[in-house]
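Box 3.1 A note on notation
Throughout this textbook, protein chains are presented in two layers. The first layer is the amino acid sequence; the second is a token string describing backbone geometry. Keep the layers aligned when reading.
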Amino acid sequence: MAQIIKIQANPEILSWAREEAGFSIQDLSDKMSITPSRFEEWEKSGKEIPLGILKKIAGYYKRQIAVFFLPTTPEKIEKPKDFRNIANSHGIFSPETLLTIRRTNKYVKLAKEINGWAYWERKYHWELEIKEILEKTENINNLEVTNWLRKVLKTSLKDQRKFGDYSSSFKKWRNIIEKELGIFVFQFPMPISELDGFSYLIKNNPKAIVINSNALPQRKIFTLFHELGHILKNQSALCITDITDDNSKKVEYECNSFAGMFLVPENAIYPINNEEELTKLSKINKVSREVYLRRSFEKGLISKTDFFELLKQIREHTIIKKKKPNAFVKQTVKSKSRRGEMFYNLVLNATYNSQIDFATASDVLKLKVNHILNE
């Protein structure tokens, strides 16, 4: 009979890693069929932990097993401010969302390490411009800000209308924001009821926007500009971007209004008589039907009665397309899709220039070394 190897870990780190990963002791007990009291004892003493069990725990937490033997507990990851409706969310995040926040923190720190902060300061030269504008206008949901952004992004409404379908449009906007503003745009799967996305501005690190990859493409587009609104306001924010008229949530209302004004400028708004017209106009402008409908209502081009009737219709007729579970996607394509062109290429170039080693690149891109060598 094979001997079970038992080891001692740092109990404080066991507790820290579990909390950072978003698991309760009961969660682990259910997953591993081990009594909660046993986990509690390990987190008190760190003694007599079977090596195989510790490896499984590391796998659930998405940590290297070596982290459990560190002499001191690392700092907790600083999270963006929660702008969601706490009454519904209770301020709780799933392991998937917490992992995404950890990854984002890790990626922006690596980007700063590779290029140095002076490089990123130059990339963010536009910050002085928006700061001057906001000293006059205070809020971002106004024409001066949206017109300024059109110029900075070098993208007209005419260009926007040529972006193709919603998926292509999201990809285009993502690449433009990365190129012209130097903001990373990541997308990772998170529970759709929990979060649409977040903006990430932590200390002197590069800026990032994170989108829930489980969302529909048209919702991703709106979330992208909602989170960009937070960045223009110099805010790090966790958001559900449901379009709301609740003025008690002033910042979220402002960022929603900004995203709508940018994506559907006044010269793109026309009267709407039925759902068919709404669908056509929203597709032309590459926005969701709800975004276009609300912009038309804001401009008084549709009555309140018709607005609510159409809103009810489009919500009832929205079809959620499920992804094919067996569809094969190359690992390099998946990695680039999740991390974005800017971060993906930054890591590859840093690897080829010997700024980081292949093990680091493999870890952050989640690619095998041979895939990296063939890129």
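Residues 165 and 283 are 8 Å apart (CA to CA). Residues 331-352 form the longest helix (22 residues).
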